[in-house]
């Protein structure tokens, strides 16, 4: 008689990059036979649909930043008897409510924000800012590979469909992601992106697709206006699922420290990641084809990394000091590592 696999609910984080970095945990849980259902907010759900280890994705109907207590209670009650265990990735109290309302017998997560009683398998909160992949991996409660790195996958048909809809050819376009929702202290200046776009377009003849959220559309328009004929702005008009597919089909990617950076790394696309106020020691792009530019140790600034949304000194020298020519060189190096070159 075949045994029914243990049914595990995963409560997903709300940020795209964090979702990508949880993939090695998904792989570890699936490898030991657990059937994974991920409960995710709509703007993160497409990331989990690119993880073959995930059996099902449920989009949560909650508003960003709101408790929605009654709605959580109703949904949790509807799930009673459906799951054997739950793993809660965010540290907030509200993230732990669903498994508790659902009366899931085993509820795993970090102690977080006063979650005594809500979780019955609590790990102590990690100190400092440890690498996120390892932080999530510890929730597997089993030995976890130190070199674990996220991997995403999409069928060729999904990639080809998005590429066709964008009117480009697979492998014959660049993706730039000049935004970062955290704040301006993570954004390389628009004029630098434009200079790089002009150079890349002139050297390769290939178009640059500018991806990002609706809030980043104006920034992308600014880049495009300063690089006439080189760019196409898809920010704000392209759903995340299609953006993921476009990144998977790109020749190379340049971005700030953002969720799209992690997506490129998880598809092993040649890329350059630009860090300023944040640290690649905490959230690096984990890919042999990724090249990181971070000026800590090169500039006489003791504020790197500050992890602030806006530069307290108003200059953001940690990013403005990165020259486009250096990014160009790093991108060529990433392409050569991927066996493609110019």
What would you say this structure looks like, in words?
With 342 residues, the protein is α/β, with parallel strands linked by helices. The protein folds into 2 domains: 7-140, Glycogen Phosphorylase B (Rossmann fold); 158-337, Glycogen Phosphorylase B (Rossmann fold, 3-Layer(aba) Sandwich), CATH 3.40.50.2000. Helix content is 32%, strand content 16%. The chain has 13 helices and 12 strands. It has helices spanning 16-21, 23-31, 45-49, 69-78, 97-101, 132-137, 156-165, 190-204, 217-225, 240-248, 259-266, 317-320, 324-337, and strands at residues 7-11, 35-40, 54-59, 85-88, 106-110, 121-123, 174-177, 208-210, 231-233, 252-256, 271-275, 290-294. The strands form 2 sheets. A 6-stranded parallel β-sheet has the order 3-2-1-4-5-6. A 6-stranded parallel β-sheet has the order 9-8-7-10-11-12, with helices on both faces. Strand 7, helix 8 and strand 8 form a beta-alpha-beta unit. Helix 7 (156-165) crosses helix 10 (240-248) and helix 8 (190-204) packs across helix 9 (217-225). It starts with 6 loop residues before the first strand and ends in a 5-residue tail after the last helix. 46% of the residues are buried.
């Amino acid at each position: 008689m075949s045994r029914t696999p243990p049914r595990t609910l995963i409560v997903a984080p709300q940020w795209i990059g964090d979702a990508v970095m949880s993939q090695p945990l998904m792989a570890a849980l699936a490898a030991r036979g657990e059937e994974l259902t991920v409960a995710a907010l709509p703007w993160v759900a497409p990331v989990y649909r690119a993880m073959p280890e995930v059996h099902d994705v449920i989009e949560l109907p909650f508003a960003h930043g709101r408790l929605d207590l009654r709605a959580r209670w109703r949904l949790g009650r509807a799930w009673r008897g459906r799951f054997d265990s739950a793993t809660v990735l965010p540290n907030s109290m509200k993230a732990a409510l669903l498994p508790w309302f659902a009366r899931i017998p085993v509820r795993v997560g970090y102690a977080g924000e006063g979650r005594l009683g809500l979780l019955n398998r609590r790990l102590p909160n990690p100190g400092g800012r440890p690498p996120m992949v390892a932080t999530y991996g510890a929730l597997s409660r089993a030995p976890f590979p130190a070199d674990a790195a996220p991997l995403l996958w999409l069928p060729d048909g999904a990639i080809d469909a998005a590429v066709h809809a964008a009117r480009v050819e697979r492998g014959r376009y660049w993706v730039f992601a000049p935004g970062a929702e955290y704040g301006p202290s993570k954004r390389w200046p628009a004029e630098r992106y434009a200079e790089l776009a002009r150079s890349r377009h002139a050297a390769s003849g290939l178009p640059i697709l500018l991806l990002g959220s609706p809030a980043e559309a104006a920034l992308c328009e600014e880049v495009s206006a300063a690089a006439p004929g080189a760019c196409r702005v898809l920010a704000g008009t392209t759903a995340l699922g299609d953006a993921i597919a476009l990144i998977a089909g790109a020749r190379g990617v340049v971005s700030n420290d953002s969720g799209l950076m992690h997506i490129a790394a998880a598809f092993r696309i040649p890329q350059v990641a630009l860090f300023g106020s944040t640290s690649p020691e905490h959230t690096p792009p984990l890919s042999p084809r990724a090249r990181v530019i971070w000026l800590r140790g090169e500039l006489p600034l003791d504020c790197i990394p500050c992890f602030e949304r806006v530069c307290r000194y108003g200059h953001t020298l940690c990013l403005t000091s990165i020259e486009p020519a250096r990014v160009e060189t790093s991108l060529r190096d990433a392409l050569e590592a991927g066996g493609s070159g110019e």
